[in-house]
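Example record used in the benchmark description.
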Amino acid sequence: MATALCMLLAAGDVEAASIDGAIDALRDIALRTETATRETLQAHAALRDADTATIRTVKSLRSRFDAIARRASIDGYAADAKFSRKSRGVDELLANLERAAAAPRDVALPALLPSAAHVLAIAPDAGTSCATALTAASGDAVEKTLAPGSSIWIRVAPAKTRFVRVDTAPSSVDTEITLFGQSCPAGEDDAVAHNDDAYGLAAAVAIDSEDSSHSSGAHYARVRNIGHSAGDVVARVNATAAIVGRITDARNAQPIFAQAVAVTPDGYFLAQTQNDDSTGLYLLPVDPGTYYILAQGYYSPDFAYLSELYPDAACSTSYVYALAQCDTGSATPLTIADGQELDGINVALGIGARVAGIVRDALTGAPLSGASIAAYETNGEFGAVSTVTDLTGRYEVAGLVSGTYVLEATRDGYGSQLWNHVTCTGPIETDCEISGGTPLTLVRDTLTSSIDFDLPVEAHLHATILPRNGAPIPLGWELSIYDQSNAYVGASFVYGASSIDSVALAPGSYYAFVTADGYFGQLWNAIDCVADCGPPFDQAIPIKIARGQTIAVSFAPLVVPSVSGTVTDAATHEPLANASITLVPAKLEGSLVQAFTDPSGRYSLAPPTAGSYYVWANSSAYRGTLYPDVRCTDSVFQHCDLAAATPVTIAFAGSDVTGIDIAMPPDGSVSGRVVLRTPDGMVLPPMVPGYASVGLFTALDEYVASSGILTDGSYRVTNVPDGTYYATVQGPMFTEIYPRIDCEGACSPSQGSPIAVASGADTTGIDFDPIPYEYIFGRVTDVDGAPIPGAAIDLWQENDRHCGVSVTNADGYYAATDNLMPCQTPLLSTDADSSMYENQVYDGIPCPHGSVFLDLCSLDGATPVPFPTTPAFAIANFMLGPRPETIFASGFDP
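Model output (structure tokens):
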């Protein structure tokens, strides 16, 4: 079942779309692309070709994207830095989908949609500030609904690998991620990394544990909604590898603002990042694999940088959307392993040639906006590079390699033309042989102007749209043309305008219809489509058109009735803001439509077409509910009792369905605190696990819900129905069943004590103190038994690799773990004040010249202290004698 979120692109009677509106439309395309990509990956996994519906979706998405890009060029904001960055990301998502959908079923596809293994359950107030940050480790994900301007904070636990990536999945909101250090920031100046639009419209940052600004402890990351609409955000934490380098201007070696993109040898775009425009440096987190590194500069009003593949393989344009545009034979693919860093992957970009001119109507001489200009290199090494004319008919193709080109101009409703004024052949003068054009020599750093075109008018339909009953004009809509044999001829998608020209048509008879999100489709002339407008067109009226004729047609589609209501708390009757409302087709086929309640708990949304729909409400800390009052067992729709629900019916030309109110019962919750247990008698501050989760289970050991742990050790498991449960806490190398039952090997949660949970109530005091397997405890004293504070305890592998460090407290106690590198059977040494004490290697091996850390002592003969593999404590105490006199340090008399 498809799960695309349907965004109703509705605005007033506008002829030009704003940048914000265009970015909203790009976001909708990104979400639909993600859905189609997931379906394509599933088809390949089942050794099936992509189905026909998916193929149609791919073509429609490309048409929509091209229309938005065309509008941006016409209105002059195509070079806006924000729009350019986001449109590039969406174009790469689309390019991946198009390649995957066309791939044979026996061809392995890369992981085009990153995922996390474990979604943490969180309390409503958790993660709203740095102080309540959620702890997440590699393989974890956090999901939360974010209003505009709101954030979710994550404490990223140290990993066993050098690099960790924090990223967001494509979503209905615009996300950014800012990375801070190991303490809550005082302000934005404390940020150590920032990124936006690293994967489509998603974001990503990477933590380098060996970077001085990214030291090895936990880091705080803020994921913020910088858009203007609320929506669900999924933030993921994953171990990764990294490619590091610098992007500069080839003319002067100065840093430039650019992006680095990882492209597979098969041409899939799998990761991208922006560099630091002050230094040119970039850090690109990638999964293990083989990649080309593509460097692309951002467009300037004065010039465009030519893209390159590392190390210096030329591409034909400033923006690459396919590897065919680059000289891969001169590029060096890079193979990288998990956790590895490839440094010094530097690329210097040069400036390209430019060509400019005007496109006019050959009959009237009027300038033509929205005409496409393609530049073809005559040696055939690269594909076409294209742009679109603006409102005055002007164009500029920038960022071209030096060489000889033939230029072609095309536009809906017109014949095509090669420069110099060579009209193409065929029934509608659109069959172009590139060899028929006049070659044009272009040189880098040089503008060639006055390359003009005058296009012949062809037979076409000029369609306008004006919805009935005063409804707004759709911001995006599509005109489709079929011939009289019901064969598809072509479609035109327009964004930000109330009229559109069809594709050029040969003399004959045609059927035409329009479709738009939130509206019923309509066939000409005034024939409404209750469902699909596609063939056969038994009741439709054909439009007869002669050569060169322009026929004006108009459409007045009907708005699909909406479903609206209010969502409240069933106990207090207070409105619930930001509750998720989803319309699910009663046949469980087709697209889901989702919206969020406003601060007053109200919602309104329209399905794609007439039919019966379930109305499904979800909100954190409340029981998922199907209208009118069917309580679901969790937040998975398939776990709701559909037989007890009442679908709402949307009728064609019917009224809006109002009063679909839902009262959601507040769930119960379980809360408490998790701190690690320490050996009896040891005075240590509370130790919170680096990452762990508390889970609730039934008496049959069936999972119910879980929660991560905050930095102070507190947790709250929400979305818990009335009932009796059993609780466990699980972390790295430990499991404890409530109350205080340390688990060795396989164990059942129901071995513990039952916990009663009531609706709307928080069951408090469910605390845990598990024995950690990954710590070594001990004390450092002098020969008189007095504590030695501030002594470093270093952990080493047998190959002398430093893998952990701890420091004794005021009472001389310490708790050491492998917080630097993975370390299974460590050797221990002290590094205390060598002016006062003789350091040691465990057990009892003196270091008269100084510590192992300072390379003044050997680990030879040291006694390993393995981490426990069962619930037990590993203890390693040190008693340090006074610093020996230097003359006796050798052990021999002078």
